[in-house]
Amino acid sequence: MESDLKNINLKKIIIFFILLNLFFIGIIIFITESILFIYE
Q1: Which domain holds residue 30?
Q2: Torsion of CA 17, 22, 26, 32, to 10 degrees
């Protein structure tokens, strides 16, 4: 029972980190696109 809870928490943490990484990548792409757009 305890190991199941740990696995569920681990999956939630992994999904959370993946979403966080995607969010940061999106922000970085958005910033670089706007910088390139400004300099053109």
Answers
A1: 1-39
A2: 80
Query: Which pTM does this prediction carry?
Result: 0.61
CA separation (Å) from 35 to 9, 17, 27, 39? 39, 27, 12, 6
The single residue listed with the structure tokens 């740990």 is 6
Considering its fold, how many domains does the chain have in total?
Answer: 1
pLDDT, one tens digit per residue, over 1-40 is: 678 888 889 999 999 999 999 999 999 999 999 999 888 7
CA 29, CA 18: separation in Å to the nearest integer?
16
DSSP assignment, residue 26? H
